[in-house]
Amino acid sequence: AKLNGRRGYSVYDSMIRRDRKRRAVLIEKLRVSLSRDEVGVALQPQSNLRSGRHEGFEALARWKVGGAAVPPLELISVAEEAGLITQLSYRLIDKALAAMAGFRRDGLSPGTIAFNVVAAQLQEPDFIERLCAMVEAHGLSPQDIEIEVTENVILDRAAGNIAAALKQLHKKGMSIALDDFGTGYASLTHLKQFPIDILKIDRSFISGILNEKDDEIIVRTIISLAHNLGFEVIAEGVETIDQYKQLSNFGCDLVQGYLLARPMSEEESRAYLDSVRRP
Ligand code: C2E
Ligand code: CA
Ligand code: CA
Ligand code: CA
């Protein structure tokens, strides 16, 4: 930056200004979208590697502004900054639960539904109560629900409260999954301190399991660590049949990724469930 002198700095400053402007605009648009109930949910299937059977879905937020999709990570960070994340998540959870209940009414077996939650949600005093009430209102049970948290969530400053909230959810019968495992700063002690049931291996390790020895070793090690601690393990970002076979060789329990299906609308998910149904 120094070499470019003023010019370098001014380019940087203008980038920062543009970014702030975009976020301020997005916050306003998000408020409007929420009031019009325009934030959607996509469902991505997970399947059991041994039986080959459908296991459940992960719910993922979807939001379009002026016809263009806003990347979910940006949506979530904007929503957190604006204090809108809890509101947004309740909407999304309700939509996904309604879809699951609808699938059941149609005679389909949608399995479990996983929700991504952030620290702010787990710190809401009535989060657990409200979530359980929503689950019940849709005729589902806590056993149908998985809660996905990243390492950042369990490393939050309020880690004590977070652990207590996760323990309560776990006690109700929900499963807790540690998302993006291997990319953050969580240590092995955290695996004992938190009531974790499932490790989700980050997709950055999955992409290299066929041709990068390091990734292969990391994935095999995570799988055996998970099993030794009594956790299930799911690989995310599985895109090819060769990765699928390799994960099967490694003894991985579950898979999720474009190979099975991309995140889908409710209609597409219904068609998917119908197509994987067995007589
Ligand atoms: P995530 O929880 O790790 O979700 C999986 C992401 O991987 C999704 O990205 C999904 O579309 C993508 N993905 C799935 N299979 C494949 C594959 O085979 N290859 C590749 N390259 N990608 C695959 P998406 O939908 O863009 O979401 C990104 C992130 O945004 C999520 O990562 C999650 O951290 C966050 N997110 C999305 N929805 C929510 C939400 O409702 N609440 C919270 N707190 N976070 C959310
Ligand atoms: Ca499961
Ligand atoms: Ca996730
Ligand atoms: Ca993930």
From TrEMBL:
Q: Where is the EAL domain?
A: 23-277
Q: What's the protein here called?
A: Diguanylate cyclase (GGDEF)-like protein/PAS domain S-box-containing protein
> Which species is this record about?
Sphingobium jiangsuense
In the record, what lineage is assigned to the organism producing the protein? Bacteria, Pseudomonadati, Pseudomonadota, Alphaproteobacteria, Sphingomonadales
